[in-house]
Design brief:
With 379 residues, the protein is an alpha/beta fold. It has helices at 9-27, 32-41, 59-73, 115-123, 133-138, 195-224, 231-239, 250-259, 293-303, 306-316, 331-334, 348-353, 369-378, and strands at 50-55, 76-81, 109-112, 127-128, 151-163, 187-188, 245-249, 265-268, 279-287, 319-320. Strands 1, 2, 3, 4, 5, 6, 7, 8, 9 and 10 form a ten-stranded mixed β-sheet that branches. Strand 1 (50-55), helix 3 (59-73) and strand 2 (76-81) form a beta-alpha-beta unit. It is globular and about 60 Å long.
Amino acid sequence: MLKVVRSNSKLLKRALSVFILASLSLTGCSNAQDEDENQADNPVQISQERFQIGTDLDIKTLSRLSDAYRQETGILIEWVPVDKSVFTIHFDEEPPLHFDVKLPKGVDMLMMHSVYTLANASASHVLQPVGSRTLATTVPAHYQDPDGEWFGVGKYARSIVYNKNKVNERELVNYAGLGASRWFGKLCMTDIYSPENQAIAKMMMSYNGTKLTPEILANWQANMGSPLANNAEILNQIEQGGCDVGIVDSDAFWGYAKTHPNTQLRLMWPNQINRGAITNAISIGMVDAGEEVGQALRFMEWLVSDRGQALLAFHTSTFPVIDIKDDTVNMETIRPEWTQFEPDSTPLIDFIKDHRKIEPQKKEPEVPEEEGEETQALE
């Protein structure tokens, strides 16, 4: 039996301290004089090579990653905002006869927060297979498309977050438990039909069955009322007392904790005594109409190097998908003790290929007691 892993307050505070102290050393930052000397000694800095990446991630955050890449290679990355809704064809829908997906002109590759967005991009026919032995052999099969159209490069989990002043952490064990009546009016979630929450439902179907899982979804709906739009809204609601517990992506919580060191929120890794926590990944794919595919491929392969993985994890609050072997990387900064958890082993492609939409159980409307008595009297 696996040990239930929880985020201890002292561990979280210590991790935040380590994060602050290590930020300069890991990113390779230096003072302005050192940078000028490096540019003078290293002619690669004046290279005019560049390419574009479409993304729904925070561009300011990604710019720190691309700055490090440019220092190494001299290649400039231009980040272009891409809303995930642009991929009008969903991976779990019947494909239409015509595809009308318009990406910003000049985008060579995509780097999106969720693998399900890349699956939608693939279904929308905007990606091409990437014939890279480096990617195929380095990225675990769990986080790659069998056809080579997308690769996960920074993983995170669907985690449970709670207000430590209102919730005893021992009350929390798994996703299904949030359907208990004690959480009525206290649960915050995004829509149960989102790909991320449907993945949880599909996992629960494998061990809770076709009868119990729809009931759990219905209880989630009852407990949360109206769904919230995103991770940020859930975290803010719990912090402000609007609810006590919720399901969010772990990178959202980790990023929030870095900027709110005195937060009352804590994270718990669910399903640690059976299947493990559901994971997702920042994912990359090559645009079919891309022009600078060579430059894009070079960056893709850099992302799965030890340094690329360390920097990506550091800046995006995700976790490496590979085992970093470089001894100079400060792993305590990237994977503090409290972030160690047991992940679910189901390959992401299995959730994508499972086109079922798990519906909540439809409950009969309750008849008010007085009305019921009156009906019986008439009969």
